[in-house]
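Bench notes, afternoon.
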Amino acid sequence: MYRFPPRAFFALVFAAGCVEQTPDMPSEEDLKAARANILTAPPATVQHPVNGELEDKLTYLGCDVDTDTVVPGKPFNMTHYWKVNTPVTDDWKLFVHLEAPDTKKAHLNADHVPIAGKYPLRIWKKGEIIRDIQKMTVPQSWPSNGLEIYVGAWKGPVRMKVVKGPSDGENRLLSVKLPIERGGEHERRSLVVRRVKPGTIKLDGKLDEVAWAQAGTTGAFVHTMDGTLTNQHTEAKVLWDDKNLYVAFQVEDKDIWTTMTKHDDKLWTQEAVEIFIDADGDGKNYIELQVNPKNTTFDSYLQAYRQNQNDWDSAMKTAVKVDGTVDNRGDVDKGWVAEIAVPLEAARGREKTMKNVPPVVGNEWRMNFFRLDMPKDRQQEASAWSPPMVGDFHALDRFGTLVFGDEKGVAPTKANALKTADKVAAPAAKMSLKRIARPN
């Protein structure tokens, strides 16, 4: 199942091509401020010289960078030096692209109007040396140990030809290569789950049982790509008994919307909540479960990464309660609750036996919880309990750990080092990307 990335990829503007820039002429005040960066001669030294030429019009002398190593999430300054050989009087614009060299799956578009928007390319004069200082940030979830920065000029679907200098063959000049400092990864979540007596939970979407008030909670979901808090609150509470794992999603939603009513339809393309379970934690076979605001369900067994078998039946039971109106995009809703009972045996999918299934107190399952929201006139947004930090819900190595606790919400030995059901919280890390992969 393919799904477009739920959020814009980067801290800067992202686009498949280049970003449109304002055609307005700069004011006299802008030009006065820009003059300090319009030089009459090249700088004595350039930290990263290039001397690449774009047709007979521009020479990219090179750049200075105020860091030797880029730290994801930390801004850095890059100073470009351009020489004007022939005035570019029509609608050409500059572009700046950031790429992950070893994966080719990360692209950040950092197009901008030079000199803080005060001196566009079309009014550059012959002989001028333009010093253009640009602040950039590589997101926390950058999927590479390196960074390549390309520059050039574009007009509509055309790029100005590179006639000299290091080029990628697509009329982009390689400005600089920089290493990425790999810091600590975003904290993986853990949750100890309280055990309840069979028959305690009535599946009605109301969550009015005392057990739900005492249940362990994931805390607030965070954006899947960068771990930051979302504008609308989502959390999941979890309980278990001898037969089922119970998950209750509490979703704040001002515009509840979905059109899908058929089981195993592509719920992930609209609004839904999702559960992923890798019960034995081997990172190989796992199950995927979904529910939408109309109580439509999806379940799938995956024998290996993304190898969905949608004809498999989990036998899960669900109940949804909506506080608002589904599909009326003209009103303001409050939210919805999805209450789900997943048979413990379903966690092994089509395997005859599996480690930790059924679980006993102290066992651990690798799991993740997701929410997909489709705001009106905006791109789909995704949040998670344990953010994968890439555009892929199937990133099993980023799943959290669910620990099966006793009636007090306590599990033995190393589980005690984890958060107990009464103390679980999900603090959001301040991080800031888009990887091109379906997040399904």
